[in-house]
Every structure is written in C-alpha cells, then in structure tokens.
Amino acid sequence: MDDQLIADFYDYEALLPDEERKFLLKARAFMRDEIKPLVNEYWAKGEFPRELIGKFRASGLAGLPYEGYGEHQPAVSHLLTGMMAMEMSRTDASVATFFGVHNGLAMYSIHSGGSQEQRDRWLPSMAAMDKIGAFAMTEPLGGSDVAGGMRTTAKRDGGTWILNGAKKWIGNATFADYVVVWARDLDDNNVKGFVVEKGTPGFSPVKIEGKVAFRIVENAEITLTDVRVPEANRLQNINSFRDVAEILRATRGGVAWQALGVMIGAYELALDYAKQRQQFGRPIAKFQLVQDLLVKSLGDITASWGMLVQLARLQDAGIFRDEHSSLAKAFVTSRMRDVVARSREIFGGNGILLEHDIARFFTDAEAIYSFEGTREMNTLIVGKAITGLSAFV
C-alpha cells in the first residue's frame, strides 16, 4: 500500500492517531483500486458511474463524522474528515464531490438542523449509503446573494408545506433519495430546510449538460411546482439563514481540503511525468526551470496543508468562526489554481490529453475555485472580521 504521500513534505499525516489513520489509508486504497480505473471513461461521457455507489457502500467510509451513525464510534476528528476529502480529491474531484455532497452537505444538514427523530429516521440509511443525499440551495438567479435573495418559497398549509421555485447546480440530485431543499417561508421571510424525498410530485430534477468541469458530477436544475412536504420533513432546528450559515461554515472548510487534494494530485502527476519525459537526452526533471515549478507547487501545498491542520484543530475545539473557513477557502483555492497551472505546463502539449489525467484536474479546479463562496465573497467575510467594517452592499 502507498503509505505516505510524496507531497507530504512536512509529514502532516503523522498528526493523525493510528486508529484514525487506518481510515485514511482505507480511503487511499479505495480510490486507487476502485475509482481511478473508471474516472477518465466517465469524465469523457459526462456521467456518474452508478456502480460506484455499491462500492462506496461496501467501503464503510460514509458516516464517519457522525457519532452513532457511522462505522467508527465515537465520531472521528475534523482532521481526519478533512484529510479524507483531500485523499479523494487527489484521485478525482468529481467523485470526491459526490461523496462530500452526500456525507457532508446533506448528512450534516440533517445532523445539525434536524430533530433527534429526524436524525434517527434518515441518517442510518445514509451512513450505510442505502440512501443518497443532495443539498439544494443555489438558484438559477442566485448564488452569492442567496442569503437575502432566495426566490424558492415555502407556504404552510396545515400539516404540510408547499414549495415553489427553482434550484441549479445541485450535485447528486438526478438520482438522490433525499434532497435537502432550502426555501424562504412566505409568512416570516426566514429560510427553512426541507427534506424532499425522491418521486415527490412536482419535484423535477434535470441533468445539466455541456459542462467542461466536474463532468462526472450529475448536477441538476430543479423545478419545484407546488411540491407538498409534510411538517415532519421540515428540519426542526433550522429557523433562519443564521442556522444555515452554521452548516456552510463547516462545509466551506471541506472545500478547502478538497482543493488541497487537487493540488496534490496535480503535483504528483507532474512530478512523475517530469521524471519520465525525455528531452535533449535527459528527463525534464533535471532542468532547473522544471524544478522551480515543482518546488513552488510543493511550497503552496505545504503552506495550505498547515493552514488546514490548524483549521481542523479550531473545529475540533469548537472555536472556529466564519472568517476562519472563509480565509482557508479563499487562500487554498487560489493556491490550487497556481499549482494545477504549473503542473499542466510541465506536461506541455500532452497536458491537454485526458489520458494523462492532468487536464481533468486543471478544469475541475475552476469549479472548486467558484463554489461554496467565491474568492471575492470569502475575502469580504475576512475583511469584515479584521477591520470591523462591512464592505458588503
């Protein structure tokens, strides 16, 4: 087994206790043996390989962060869950996103925002991956302004709620069993969360075609037309967008870990290629300018990893704030962009061929750079924290 990453120059993995590191190594072997052989084929087709759900189910990797619902009890550390997101993205960011949407956004919304009865009703089957989750917040006309401008509405009608509106870019939604839909209550104007079950009348997800990034993720545009959801499916602990922000704070940090994984995957591909590719009678890894590109990338990886280790510690201590995850997301995704660009440069013309993998990393990095809050939005969150002055419109 590949026990240590060549990109782990400062031995960050050693910070994990042995009991947790075994899960990281399990994820590493799973991604190498089960996922890597499939990804280019399905990336080219723009489809999610449904057979992977059964493989994930057998792996026992889901549900680890949630005490009482996963294979490991008690719940594992944020450092491990972060490194697992990194490890999956090191092989393929699309598959890591499928898992992160299910195991992170959807399950965490229920775990954080649901009642105990709701957690017990939905999470066991999701932890076993017998049921797949999705998270529907972004709208066709609303991204960064969704907090105050959510157009999807909810109206109470006795023991049910009627949802109307549209969502866009919703990963897993084409096949998910449970979709957490966020809507603005017409009576009090606050955002609330609802678990919409697959097959509910009026709920129509349509796969988005023509993407050049995250092609394996089946993002959907969802239309909700008089969708009736019982009060029992309204997340009982979500009463305003402030509660939703608690969820986004945690998942935003996960995206930064995902960006780190993309950096590492791209760097490893470039390093391996540079050692093998011959020009002027010697491997290009022997050239000073190529070594300069590689060392700059390793520096970005090492700095980003150190930031995320401390972010995980703040999460485990229960003292991390919005600006902590926002700085990590903004900084690490910016470093990721540079690393994948340098890595693709080392490949030269071969860097645009899917068979060399690096093109997949290069395009997927653009999606990661944009979602879960753009660099600009996260910058303003941090800017407000350090100056005490809001620059938001």
From TrEMBL:
Domain Acyl-CoA dehydrogenase/oxidase N-terminal, chain residue ranges per copy? 18-129
Q: Which Gene3D superfamilies match?
A: Acyl-CoA dehydrogenase/oxidase, N-terminal domain (1.10.540.10), Butyryl-CoA Dehydrogenase, subunit A, domain 2 (2.40.110.10), Butyryl-CoA Dehydrogenase, subunit A, domain 3 (1.20.140.10)
Zinc recorded as keyword = no
Q: What cofactor does this protein call for?
A: FAD
InterPro entries annotated for this entry?
A: ACX4-like, Acyl-CoA_DH_CS, Acyl-CoA_Oxase/DH_mid-dom, Acyl-CoA_Oxase/DH_mid-dom_sf, AcylCo_DH-like_C, AcylCo_DH/oxidase_C, AcylCoA_DH/ox_N, AcylCoA_DH/ox_N_sf
Report the record's Gene Ontology biological process terms.
fatty acid beta-oxidation
Any one GO molecular function term: flavin adenine dinucleotide binding
Looking at the record, the residues that make up the Acyl-CoA oxidase/dehydrogenase middle domain are 134-227
Q: Domain Acyl-CoA dehydrogenase/oxidase C-terminal spans what residues? A: 244-386
Keywords of this entry? FAD, Flavoprotein, Oxidoreductase
Q: Which Pfam families match?
A: Acyl-CoA_dh_1, Acyl-CoA_dh_M, Acyl-CoA_dh_N
Query: Which PANTHER family does this entry report, sorted A to Z?
Result: ACYL-COA DEHYDROGENASE, ACYL-COENZYME A OXIDASE
Tell me the protein family, please. Answer: Belongs to the acyl-CoA dehydrogenase family.
Record protein name field: Acyl-CoA dehydrogenase
